[in-house]
Amino acid sequence: MPELPEVEGLAAFLREHAVGHVVARIDVAAFNVLKTFDPPPTSLHGLEVTEVARHGKWVDLDVDGLHLVFHLSKAGWLRWSTKLNPTPLRPGKSPIALRVVLDDDTGFDLTEAGTRKRLAVYVVRDPASVPQIASLGPDPLDPAFDRAAFGALLAGRRTQVKGLLRDQSVLAGVGNAYSDEVLHAAKLSPYALAGSLDEGQVDVLYEALESVLREAVAGSAGRPAAELKDTKRAGMRVHGRAGQPCPVCGDTVREVSFADSALQYCPTCQTGGKPLADRRMSRLLK
C-alpha cells in the first residue's frame, strides 16, 4: 500500500504536471470506486487544477474549489501518461478504474489490481467531509508535530507500538512498511507497549520516525510516478526482506504473519536476539 512518502511523491508529481491545467474529461470505468454522487465527476470538466495536497495517505486535487480526493488502498496506483488514449474506457475491461484527461491530452489513470476493490475516489466541496480524512491524526511531518506532541500520543496507551504507528486516527500516513522501518531504526520490538516506553525510548522512536520518513520523502522527490514503488522497495531495510541479512548487524530478518499482512524485524536489533512467535505458523504446526 502506498504510504506517506510515496503519496507525497505522487502529490509533488501532480503539482508539477497537473496544476495550471484544465480538466477536459473524467471517465469512470469502475463505478464502485466513486464514493460520492454530488457533485458529480462531470462538475470538474472545464475547471482548472489549482493545487494538490496530501492528507495522510490521501491525494487531494483542488479543482477550482472542488476537490477530487482519492486513496489508492492496497493495490491501487496512479499511472501518468503524456498522451492518453482517446478511446472511452469500457467498464470492467481493464484494471483502470478512473481516468482524468487534461486540456493538453496528458493526464492519469487510477488503476487497481486484484479482486479486493478498495480504491476510493470522492468528489467533494471540502476534503474534511470525507470521513476518513476528518478522523486522521496529526501528520508526522507537520512542523507542529514535535517530540512533546508525539509523547502525548503514546502516554498511557496499552497498545503495541506497531499497531499504534499504523493507526490513522493516531498518526496519519504511516502503514505496515514504514512502521517496520521506523521500529528497526529505533531498535524497538513491534510488540512493545506504547505506554511502557521510557523517555529515552520515546526520544529515539520520535527521531527514527522523523528521519525514516524524511529520508524516504527526499528519495521520492522529483521521481516520476512510475518509479515511486521501486524507490520505496529499494529503501527498505527490513520490510519485505524476510530471510535476508539485516544491513545493520547481519542477523537474518524474520517475519510474523497475520491473516492479511506480515511484519518484518531483526531479532538482534529489536528483540534481544529472541525470535517473535509467528502465530499463524504455530497453528499450522499443531
TrEMBL record:
Location of the Formamidopyrimidine-DNA glycosylase catalytic domain: 2-119
Cofactor(s), by name: Zn(2+)
SUPFAM superfamilies attached to this UniProt entry: Glucocorticoid receptor-like (DNA-binding domain) (SSF57716), N-terminal domain of MutM-like DNA repair proteins (SSF81624), S13-like H2TH domain (SSF46946)
Domain FPG-type stretches: 237-271
SMART domains: Fapy_DNA_glyco, H2TH
Pfam hit, one: H2TH
Record key words, sorted: DNA damage, DNA repair, DNA-binding, Glycosidase, Hydrolase, Lyase, Metal-binding, Multifunctional enzyme, Zinc, Zinc-finger
Reactions the enzyme catalyzes: Hydrolysis of DNA containing ring-opened 7-methylguanine residues, releasing 2,6-diamino-4-hydroxy-5-(N-methyl)formamidopyrimidine
Protein name per its UniProtKB record: Fpg/Nei family DNA glycosylase
Family statement: Belongs to the FPG family.
Domain of life: Bacteria
Native species: Angustibacter luteus
